[in-house]
């Protein structure tokens, strides 16, 4: 995934500001809402992230971003948890999810394909290995446009 210098600067400011709240910065991205830039932050915590935690983080980050005057022009700040189908911002974040199904989309085709979906076979350095029906594909994470976990709901129990 590409690294934007402003995102890197914001992450450097946001991560320490979130520590007192007991949360970590999972990732950040830009989006747009009309003429305004949207700064979307994902936060995570060992015991999960509540709406109240997101609100506290949003207030704290808004104050810090405004004090540092890092945002050019008007912006909207959104803070949320990564959710069940969490997006991955680096290969290291994927390591705890080995064996679970992931959806990976590439910037450029590799072996004629831009989309991989299957169990995460392994993480080796910056390489992501996805198993699609026994065929393991290795992709360097910088080639990944987006990657997220695919939540699989348990099968409903049937009455015996």
UniProtKB/TrEMBL annotation:
CC per GO annotation: cytosol
TM region positions: none
Occurrences of domain Ribosome maturation factor RimP C-terminal (ranges): 97-153
Keywords in alphabetical order: Cytoplasm, Ribosome biogenesis
Ranges where the Ribosome maturation factor RimP N-terminal domain occurs: 14-85
A Pfam entry, by short name: DUF150_C
Tree of life domain: Bacteria
InterPro entries per record: Ribosome_maturation_RimP (IPR003728), RimP_C (IPR028998), RimP_C_sf (IPR036847), RimP_N (IPR028989), RimP_N_sf (IPR035956)
Annotated compartments: Cytoplasm
UniProt key word Endoplasmic reticulum: no
Any GO BP: ribosomal small subunit assembly
The keyword Cell membrane appears for this protein: no
Function, in words: Required for maturation of 30S ribosomal subunits.
Family the UniProt entry places it in: Belongs to the RimP family.
The name this protein goes by in its record: Ribosome maturation factor RimP
Organism whose genome encodes this protein: Humidesulfovibrio mexicanus
Highest classification ranks of the organism: Bacteria, Pseudomonadati, Thermodesulfobacteriota, Desulfovibrionia, Desulfovibrionales
């Amino acid at each position: 995934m590409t690294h934007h210098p402003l995102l890197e600067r914001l992450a450097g400011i946001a991560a320490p500001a979130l520590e007192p709240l007991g949360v970590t910065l999972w990732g950040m991205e830009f989006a747009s809402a009309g003429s305004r830039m949207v700064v979307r932050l994902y936060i995570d915590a060992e015991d999960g992230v509540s709406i109240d935690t997101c609100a506290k983080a949003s207030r704290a980050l808004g104050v810090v971003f405004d004090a540092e005057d890092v945002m050019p022009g008007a912006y909207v700040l959104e803070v949320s948890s990564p959710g069940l189908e969490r997006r991955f911002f680096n290969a290291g974040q994927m390591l705890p999810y080995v064996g679970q199904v992931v959806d990976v989309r590439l910037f450029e085709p590799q072996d004629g394909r831009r989309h991989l979906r299957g169990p995460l076979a392994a993480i080796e350095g910056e390489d992501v290995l996805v198993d699609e029906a026994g065929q393991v594909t290795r992709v360097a994470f910088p080639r990944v446009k987006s990657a997220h976990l695919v939540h699989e709901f348990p099968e409903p129990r049937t009455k015996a």
